[in-house]
Write a structure and sequence with these properties.
Elements (H helix, E strand, L loop, with lengths): L1 E5 L4 H12 L7 E6 L7 E4 L2 E4 L1 E2 L10 E4 L3 H13 L3 E4 L22 H7 L1 E3 L3 H16 L2 E10 L6 H15 L31 H13 L7 E7 L6 E9 L5 H9 L4 E3 L10 H4 L6 E8 L4 E8 L1 H20 L4
Parallel strand pairs: 1-2, 1-6, 2-5, 6-7, 7-8, 9-10, 12-13
Antiparallel strand pairs: 3-4, 9-11, 11-14, 13-14
Organism: Candidatus Anaerobiospirillum pullistercoris
Family: Belongs to the aspartate-semialdehyde dehydrogenase family.
InterPro entries: NAD(P)-bd_dom_sf (IPR036291), Semialdehyde_DH_NAD-bd (IPR000534), Semialdhyde_DH_dimer_dom (IPR012280)
Length: about 325
């Protein structure tokens, strides 16, 4: 395939390049790294070859079969229509279209068949990492037993906001450790050594804008209505790794062992108790493979269970999820 990447130097972009370097399943014939800065004379190495950087405003998207947008919402809003008009299929990870109906939302493990719609609309949307984490951890249980209701508290790392989040947390932490006060500008409150009880503005029902998007994406990706899922998102002062605390009530009862077996059926889930590393945390998760780690599983009465989930949100939730769509397109376009 001929692939363009806008945002190759972002947190997610660097991980995408790392995966493309390692995984030979991706058949890349031409590669176009795109920059918002004119006059870039550098090159991006990939698989032993250097590819010159092009200015995104001057790039002819007709040269690429697929373009990965790993950039900001503003840039996607400005450039996605241009790429589509040139016949290029866009995989958008800016979340510009998050929560919008009729936008092809793709999660390979759940709805790979949507790739046909992606080809027609020349657009694929990558779900928020928290949405993917909820769906991938609940889907095996819903398939096996049916979910009556789930209550999820999502502890969201600052990398959810890209480099702005991680750099703000690092700067505030350094300032406070050195006895210097912080000026809060880009976030509603201090990030370092702090927890935000909401992410985004609240509607009349008390649901935050961030939670609304996730509820919409979860209901789009699996047969779980917004009435079956109670969700609370809190911002925590960690750099990477989203953690879920889940209480789920099933339609059918199951033993604790059968519950664990249902989770093990998924190729993307792993149980902490079976790992040699011991305690799985957002920090340790980044050094492991791209799986979701289930821990602290307890049975809580008839057909009710509690557990936690940890996921490397930048690698699995963003980079791998976007490249999964690229692999589906590679197959659909007959280039496998």
């Amino acid at each position: 395939m001929k692939v363009a990447i806008y945002g190759y130097d972002t947190i997610v972009g660097k991980l995408v390049l790392e995966i493309l370097e390692e995984d030979q399943n991706f058949k890349i014939d031409e590669f176009y790294p795109l920059s918002p800065i004119a006059g870039e004379y550098d090159a991006v190495p990939l698989r032993g070859k250097n590819y010159l950087i092009s200015h995104v405003d001057e790039f002819d998207f007709a040269q690429a079969d697929v373009a990965l947008f790993l950039t900001t919402k503003d840039e996607s809003e400005r450039l996605v229509p241009k790429a589509q008009a040139a016949g290029c299929i866009v995989i958008d990870d800016s979340h510009l279209y998050a929560g919008i109906k009729n936008c092809p939302l793709v999660l390979r493990e759940v709805n790979p068949y949507v790739i046909k719609e992606v080809q027609e609309k020349r657009l694929a949307c990558v779900p928020l990492a928290t949405s993917s984490e909820i769906v991938l951890s609940l889907a095996p249980l819903h398939d096996e037993y049916g979910i009556k209701q789930a209550v999820v508290t999502a502890m969201v790392s600052t990398s959810e906001h890209g480099e702005l989040g991680t750099q703000t947390l690092a700067r505030e932490t350094m300032q406070l450790l050195n006895g210097v006060g912080v000026d809060v500008t880009d976030f509603p409150a201090q990030l370092a050594f702090n927890i935000h009880t909401r992410i985004g503005e609240l509607n009349e029902q008390g649901v935050s804008s961030h939670e609304q998007i996730i509820l919409h994406e979860v209901s789009t990706l699996m047969e779980l209505s917004e009435h079956q899922l109670a969700l609370t998102c809190v911002q925590v002062p960690t750099f990477y790794g989203h953690t879920l605390s889940v209480h789920v009530e099933l339609e059918e009862d199951a033993s604790l062992e059968d519950f664990k077996q249902a989770l093990k059926q998924s190729s993307v889930l792993a149980l902490e108790e079976e790992q040699e590393e011991g305690l799985i945390s957002p920090v340790s998760c980044a050094d492991l493979d791209s799986k979701l780690y289930i821990a602290h599983i307890r049975k809580f009465g008839r057909a009710a269970f509690d557990f936690t989930v940890v996921m490397d949100n930048t690698r699995h939730g963003e980079a791998t999820a976007a490249l999964d769509v690229l692999l589906l397109l590679q197959k659909a376009l007959g280039q496998n």
